[in-house]
């Protein structure tokens, strides 16, 4: 009597949907798109605050949108936000130091609120001179890093982002693309690096949280399979 052979079930094949979701390249693209639109939204809101207080001035023929902003500002800010948000978790993995300080969405939203508040203060609060305003915003920006980040990589990237962004802005103003009222730091305002630093920390936190959410989704999908 020959016993029938029972074949052991092989590994389950992933469906096309699961394969696409767990693909690192697809997840990277999704995170980049999300960061891009977040950057565009913040650029529209924050630039509107600056223009309402006449901190930045664009030529009349450039002001064409309902937000009274040059059309190229939101896409540029969105692209920069995507690069920064993807760079932060990448640097964390490269250094082998995963960022675990206050890793929840509520903390990220508070960080965004503080960043908007810092930018709002630069446009709304009146100081006796620009030095006082710059020192105040510098303290607030470092306080934002200490409250929501506290990583050496985050601080270093924030400083690098502030330097590069300020340099690019100087070149744009020098070439007449737009201008700042009452510039006191070459062609721009002295507090501008503080805004860029705080913005880099904020987008880095959003990027880290999205990367952590991606890891959780992949782990859950793998466990279900």
Distance between the termini: 37 Å
List the secondary-structure elements in sequence, H or E: HHEHHHHEH
Structural domain tally: 1
Strand line-up in the sheet with most strands: 1-2
Kindly report the average pLDDT value: 77
Largest sheet: 2 strands, antiparallel
**Helical percent range?**
55-70%
Quantity of strands, as a count = 2
- The number of helices is 7
What ranges have pLDDT less than 50 throughout 5 or more consecutive residues? 1-8, 10-21, 61-68
Kindly name the structural category.
Answer: mainly alpha
Shape, per Cα inertia axes = globular
Rg over alpha carbons: 22 Å
Strand composition percent: under 5%
InterPro entries: INSIG_fam (IPR025929)
Protein name: Insulin-induced gene protein
Keywords: Cholesterol metabolism, Endoplasmic reticulum, Lipid metabolism, Lipid-binding, Membrane, Steroid metabolism, Sterol metabolism, Transmembrane, Transmembrane helix
Subcellular location: Endoplasmic reticulum membrane
């Amino acid at each position: 009597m020959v016993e029938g052979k029972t074949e052991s079930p092989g590994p389950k094949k992933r469906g096309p949907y699961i394969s696409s979701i767990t693909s690192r390249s697809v997840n990277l693209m999704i995170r980049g798109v999300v960061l891009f639109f977040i950057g565009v939204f913040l650029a529209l809101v924050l630039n509107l605050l600056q223009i309402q207080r006449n901190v930045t001035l664009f030529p009349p023929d450039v002001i064409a949108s309902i937000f009274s902003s040059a059309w190229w500002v939101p896409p540029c800010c969105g692209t920069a936000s995507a690069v920064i948000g993807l760079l932060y978790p990448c640097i964390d993995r490269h250094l082998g130091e995963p960022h675990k300080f206050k890793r929840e969405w509520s903390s990220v939203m508070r960080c965004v609120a503080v960043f908007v508040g810092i930018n709002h203060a630069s446009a709304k609060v009146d100081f006796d001179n620009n030095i006082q305003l710059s020192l105040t915003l510098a303290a607030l920006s470092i306080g934002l890093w200490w409250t929501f980040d506290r990583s050496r990589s985050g601080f270093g990237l924030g400083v690098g982002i502030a330097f590069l962004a300020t340099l690019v802005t100087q070149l744009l103003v020098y070439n007449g693309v737009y201008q700042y009222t009452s510039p006191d730091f070459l062609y721009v305002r002295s507090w501008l690096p503080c805004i860029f630093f705080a913005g880099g920390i904020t987008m880095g936190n959003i990027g880290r949280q999205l990367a952590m959410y991606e890891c959780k989704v992949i782990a859950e999908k793998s466990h279900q399979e």
